[in-house]
Structure formats: C-alpha cells, structure tokens
C-alpha cells in the first residue's frame, strides 16, 4: 500500500512540474530595416618635397 501511494504521488509530481513550450507566430509581421549608408573617403597627403620629386620626369 505504501509503495502504491509513493508511486502515485511521484507520478503526480512529475506530471505537475513538466514544462510546457508553446510556439506561436507573432501577431504583427516581422520588419527588417536595411537602411545602410556606406561612405569611403580616401585622403592622400604629399609633402611638398615629394611632390617636386614626382614632378621630375627623370624619376620614372
């Protein structure tokens, strides 16, 4: 009798504590914003002396 009572109470505890997972679709549609702005800036600084050297046609 004690074993039956222990078995019934154990099965009741196991079923009462089992987690429930529900998967439901959202009410509103999923919105993905792809507003991407890409800017490239290339800055080249040349020293005056280097600029004079590059102007010389003997270099190349």
Q: Summarize model confidence as the mean pLDDT.
A: 75
Strand content: under 5%
Structural class: mainly alpha
- Residue share in helices? 25-40%
Give the SSE order as H and E letters.
Answer: HH
Overall body shape: rod-shaped
Low-confidence parts:
none
Round the Cα radius of gyration to an integer and report it. Answer: 38 Å
Count of helices?
2
* Oligomer type: single chain
Query: How many strand segments?
Result: 0
Biggest beta sheet summary: none
Measure the end-to-end span: 105 Å
Report on the structure:
With 60 residues, the protein is mainly α. The N and C termini lie far apart (105 Å). The chain has 2 helices and no strands. The chain has helices spanning 2-16, 48-55. Helices cover 38% and strands 0% of the residues.
Sequence-ordered SSE layout with sheet pairings:
Layout lengths: L1 H15 L31 H8 L5
């Amino acid at each position: 009798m004690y074993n039956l009572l222990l078995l019934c109470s154990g099965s009741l505890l196991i079923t009462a504590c089992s987690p429930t997972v529900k998967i439901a679709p959202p009410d509103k549609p999923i919105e993905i914003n792809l507003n991407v702005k890409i800017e490239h800036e290339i800055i080249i600084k040349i020293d005056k002396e280097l600029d004079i050297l590059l102007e010389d046609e003997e270099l190349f």
